[in-house]
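To fix ideas, we give here one paired sequence and structure record:
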Amino acid sequence: MSLIRPCGAGERDAILAIVNAAAEAYRGVIPADRWHEPYMSRDELDVEIGAGVAFWGHESDGALTGVMGIQPVGDVELIRHAYVLPAHQGEGIGTSLLRHLHRLSGRPMLVGTWADARWAIRFYERNGFALVSQAEKGELLRRYWTIPERQIETSVVLAENRGQTPNGTATEVQRPPFGV
């Protein structure tokens, strides 16, 4: 049996294990100066949680198999740190988590990822997000995220398309009110 639920304070080690195992896919893909060991440390996780990232987990047979964070920032919700254990990728866990967070949020959603992580970009596009322009990307990353300029240079932003038909096909990309 599987379910999606909020992650508890005592599950930080499980969250880190999932993030760091799944983030191995970025090794050699993202710029070497942005890679570090571990990909996410306990201190970094604590900072993210302190900044308002709420982690949700996919539990299967009593164990977390995937996590995804959501963070309210200004007039949007950011999807943060979306990872599935490598042995469970391709099972629909990421999609289930994303759809769950979509149902929880009534605000426009954004996600940032590495520009060279084509698999991540395709995942979000399949799930109703669209890449924003290069000009919008820089503006959005500076407005809603706290990341270094080097990461801004090597990242992309996707905006949620809330204009979908019930079968999941896009009608038109509806941008949040960013003022850009």
The chain has a mean pLDDT of 91. Residues 146 and 161 are 24 Å apart (CA to CA).
